TrEMBL record, chains A, B:
Catalytic activity as recorded in UniProt: thiamine phosphate + ATP = thiamine diphosphate + ADP
Function: Catalyzes the ATP-dependent phosphorylation of thiamine-monophosphate (TMP) to form thiamine-pyrophosphate (TPP), the active form of vitamin B1.
InterPro entries assigned: PurM-like_C_sf (IPR036676), PurM-like_N (IPR016188), PurM-like_N_sf (IPR036921), ThiL-like (IPR006283)
Residue positions binding ATP: 117-118, 142, 211
Identification of the protein by name: Thiamine-monophosphate kinase
Domain PurM-like N-terminal: 24-133
Binding site for Mg(2+) 2: 43, 71
Molecular function as annotated in GO: ATP binding; magnesium ion binding; thiamine-phosphate kinase activity
Organism whose genome encodes this protein: Rhodocyclus tenuis (Rhodospirillum tenue)
Amino acid sequence: MSGEFDLIRRHFARPTPATLLGPGDDCALLAPTPGQTLAITTDMLVAGVHFFADTDPGRLGWKTLAVNLSDLAAMGAQPRWATLAGALPEADDSWLGAFADGFFACATRYGVDLVGGDTTRGPLTLSVTAIGELPLGSALRRDGAHAGDDLWISGSPGLAALALAALQGRTALPATLAERCRDALETPTPRIELGLALRTRQLASAAIDVSDGLLADLGHILERSHLAGEVELAALPAAPADIDSALWRDCLLAGGDDYELIFAAAPAARADIAALAQSLALPLTRFGQLLPGAETGSGQAPRLSVRDANGQPLTLTHRGYDHFA
Amino acid sequence: MSGEFDLIRRHFARPTPATLLGPGDDCALLAPTPGQTLAITTDMLVAGVHFFADTDPGRLGWKTLAVNLSDLAAMGAQPRWATLAGALPEADDSWLGAFADGFFACATRYGVDLVGGDTTRGPLTLSVTAIGELPLGSALRRDGAHAGDDLWISGSPGLAALALAALQGRTALPATLAERCRDALETPTPRIELGLALRTRQLASAAIDVSDGLLADLGHILERSHLAGEVELAALPAAPADIDSALWRDCLLAGGDDYELIFAAAPAARADIAALAQSLALPLTRFGQLLPGAETGSGQAPRLSVRDANGQPLTLTHRGYDHFA
């Protein structure tokens, strides 16, 4: 066999216990669980756009799969399988080994079989398709939210964007905070357990993961559910010590790459959600509410408003990150 | 909504009649046909590696999906769904429109719903994951061939490689032939109907599609089925008029990008295969046979031999294309 095949096989041929036929043929063969529907998502990461080319390959391997699993989490799906396609500028054995270790650490943690792939020479680009399962009609969709629902967010939003600001020299961070932010940026935790719990306990009416920024992604729920929304800035985590408040606000509201879940839930679910946060040891923060959509109002009402600690509306300059803006 | 989303939505939001929930949420939702297994494959195409950056975008759109469907064909699967991730150097409206038209021409032709995608800025790179269905245990695998089986190939192998040779200035082609070769290279036909017929009529013991070259891909069947093989060069299409015979031999045996199917079949199936060729209006050429593997012989026997028109063994210099060779 030639070099490419040997290299890929050595690093990426791992057991696929939940798969009829793993990598090595024209296709892999999967047996979906009878009665389940499939949730499928794809994300591409490009060096210089989504990550620095010198990012630690093990962390990059983790993140490459994690950002896809985050989309499964946002539907409440149980992760099952993934494929990986990658363009690499060179066949660097140690880089590939570290990348594979990070990728499979995430795959093993969430029970994912890597069932197929493609590797080629090219500018460093990584593309994953992930597949999960869930019962028909149970998915946490973006279009299921109701006026009057609370808005919740998991974890510690803003830290990944703060890490990026530090890496770009826009702020300095004390060492402990720097490490925590860097972990948030480079090894995000897909909120699989949260998504599964919200779905099986029927606690959420809608959900989305925060990849492009809190306001931008919340906007997708508003748009698809035909609702307006109000965000209370004071309910979200306060700026860490010595961090400029305007920078922090930008990290919180417009920073991407958090991969936390935003979800909508009826006020009646507050106690259950608090109990869930306890059982998952994961902060779940109520940060706003959903209102009837503009279609039923004046047509001029802002769809999404943010109030500061004094209850004054903030003027929003941008709501996220647009790859082609 | 911001520019990127508008652009992508305008060109790529098409009906997905065979899908529970199409693009626009964190995941698409698919309902597999009860009792069927899924065949899944992924292929990445990089500008400058797999295609020239100035390739006609409509043809590139077709090929981007077709090379993935070809893998489904090689398993005998019925195509169902695909995802598309792309990095683009710029958000060029007319390029995207033409690309989408070509992509959906292929998708419509073969009944594929595009269920998800991701688009980002970056060096032009396209990655598709395609999913098909087939009954449990019926797939045309690489490891199912038997000693004594005939070797067959569909269509007109060698033309895509000849087109590449012409584009690279290694040969000149008369206009009619040039167009035919260019079509073979740029708008390959995934042999879906052939794969389905071979599977449902149980005519083939193994199959693979020719992406890396006839000998290289045949080598995968030999390796996985633990067999040796003999190829009769004289059985394969002769060089077109005025084409150098050494160049043609190289195109036939080592040229990739044909996306024809190689399959193995018992000699008893010859009449049925000839009838199938008639009914599909697709040449099916018997070009060799499979022999017991070296494991049971001297251990020194060549696994794959090619005999020329005089029955003399050819010396093989290389067997295909290795992205990292």
